[in-house]
Write a structure and sequence with these properties.
Layout lengths: L2 E6 L8 H16 L4 E6 L10 H7 L12 H15 L2 E7 L7 H10 L6 E4 L2 E4 L5 E7 L14 H10 L5 E6 L6 H18 L9 H12 L1
Parallel strand pairs: 1-2, 1-3, 3-6, 6-7
Antiparallel strand pairs: 4-5
């Protein structure tokens, strides 16, 4: 049974374009994986707090005081990492806020990128441990993206941090212009939804040997 872990970062429950597109992706994924399991981590309904000093100390390998209970941030990190490790595919629904990520998503990242759990250091190199997982980024923004994407600190960061923990099979569904007039917004949403549809389109079967021979003969004529 496959598992989809969906992570929603939008502060809005209604009128969120990233959630709308993630709903579309989830519906396609569920149709393709009828026995699959969907786990939703909604960072608006259940925000992940920013790291505190006690949690950072444990992450950095500092010894805990004798008889002290583990910091709450460490226990939360363990839960979030367990969700990640159990997932076959990750779906990030992420709007752009002020050229970057919503802060709850950054806090989430800070809790799951953890030495010995999602990455290790071998011979001075960082090695990600989640290579079995793939991901889709649904990235939305209100403005029209610049031609060079020089102001995009959203998608490049998410790609980089996923690669850091070993996830390099990443698809991106990018929808800009979400705060523009309705005609523009609708056109760009439809384009993004069509891109999602293509991700789940049936793969054409490999041609048989006879079909390959026939095609070769035709090309040689």
């Amino acid at each position: 049974m496959k598992t989809l872990l969906r992570i929603d970062a939008s502060a809005r429950q209604r009128g969120s374009c990233s959630r709308q597109l993630a709903d579309c992706f989830q519906a396609r994924w569920t149709a393709k994986n009828p026995g699959g399991r969907v786990v939703v981590r909604d960072l608006a309904q259940s925000p992940v707090p920013h790291l505190d000093g006690a949690t950072m100390a444990v992450f950095c390998g500092m010894p805990a005081p004798p008889d002290a209970a583990p910091p709450a941030g460490v226990a939360l990190s363990d839960v979030l990492i367990a969700e990640l490790r159990a997932a076959d595919h990750l779906l990030f629904a992420c709007p752009m806020y002020n050229l970057g990520l919503p802060s709850p998503l950054k806090a989430y990242v800070d809790h799951v990128v953890r030495r010995g759990h999602t990455f290790v250091v071998e011979d001075g190199r960082f090695v990600g441990l989640l290579g079995h997982t793939s991901a889709t980024l649904v990235a939305t923004r209100g403005a029209i993206a610049s031609p060079t994407l020089a102001d995009d600190f959203q998608i490049p960061y998410l790609r980089a941090i996923l690669a850091f923990i070993g996830i390099d099979r990443v698809e991106v569904i990018a929808a800009d212009g979400m705060a523009q007039e309705e005609a523009v917004r609708a056109q760009r949403l439809a384009r993004a939804q069509a891109q999602i549809d293509r991700l789940f389109a049936p793969t054409p079967p490999e041609p048989t040997r006879r079909e390959r021979d026939t095609l070769h003969a035709g090309n040689s004529a």
